[in-house]
Amino acid sequence: MIVSIDVDAQKTFSPLCPAELPVAGGDEIVAELNRQAALADLRVMTKDAHSPAAKWLVDTPQQMLQPTGLPDADVTWVAHAMVGTYGYELLDGLPDTKQYDYCVWKGVDPEFHPYGACFHDLQEKLSTGLIEWLRYRQAKIIMVGGLATDYCVKTTVLQLLKAGGWQVWVNRAACRGIAEETVRLAWQEMEAAGATVFHNAEEIENFIKFNNLK
């Protein structure tokens, strides 16, 4: 069973929302996410889903990345992915929510700001159900792409690897990151933890065919 995961492929993390948390090229990953999903048996969506009452909110970018003192929201952020806003929406060209096989909404609680898709809290005690669902579906290969490489993609990949029981593949062409140095370190960290990194979905497709994985 091959599962493809679209991590936080939302307008908030793209140049479409310059006042939120725009990631350069974040709006360019749709075609690649769709290509990798076409190789999978099941498709998962994750979204940041934040409240205007979030306790980690600040007004300006200059106030970001400061410690909050909260156990499950480590640093401050400007408003992004507020439920019901334009930035909360998936990128155009991705499926509607109900067309996905499983969905994860992250950070709904005002005191929580998780990065990975597998747990609601930073201590990784409160499961989102994703790991359990993947086991129930008997996933053997999990393909990951989305936004941003150095935050939510990396954390999701590391959580999946820690859970074990499957291969985790990451599609470079389906990811975009925030800062060059942290992106470089994220790729190193994911590979060191056991992830297989592919350049694009075409390379993944060829690998699947050559190894008769489907």
Number of helical regions: 5
Biggest sheet architecture: 6 strands, parallel
Query: Rounded to an integer, what's the Rg over CA atoms?
Result: 16 Å
Overall SS class: alpha/beta
InterPro entries: Isochorismatase-like_dom, Isochorismatase-like_sf, Isochorismatase_Nicotinamidase
Pathway: Cofactor biosynthesis; nicotinate biosynthesis; nicotinate from nicotinamide: step 1/1
GO molecular function: metal ion binding; nicotinamidase activity
Domain Isochorismatase-like: 76-199
What keyword list fits this structure?
214 residues; alpha/beta; 6-stranded parallel β-sheet; 10 strands; 23% strand; metal ion binding; Isochorismatase-like_dom; pyridine nucleotide biosynthesis; nicotinamidase
Describe the structure in brief.
The chain has helices at residues 30-37, 130-136, 149-163, 180-193, 201-210; strands at residues 2-7, 42-48, 57-58, 67-70, 73-75, 77-78, 102-106, 141-147, 167-176, 196-198. The chain has 214 residues and is α/β, with parallel strands linked by helices.
Structural notes for this entry:
The protein has 214 residues and is of the alpha/beta class. 25% of the residues lie in helices and 23% in strands. It is built from five helices and ten strands; from the N terminus they run E-H-E-E-E-E-E-E-H-E-H-E-H-E-H. The chain has helices at residues 30-37, 130-136, 149-163, 180-193, 201-210, and strands at 2-7, 42-48, 57-58, 67-70, 73-75, 77-78, 102-106, 141-147, 167-176, 196-198. It has a six-stranded parallel sheet, sandwiched between helices. Helix 1 (30-37) packs parallel to helix 5 (201-210) and helix 3 (149-163) packs parallel to helix 4 (180-193). It is globular and about 50 Å long. This is nicotinamidase. GO terms for molecular function: metal ion binding; nicotinamidase activity.
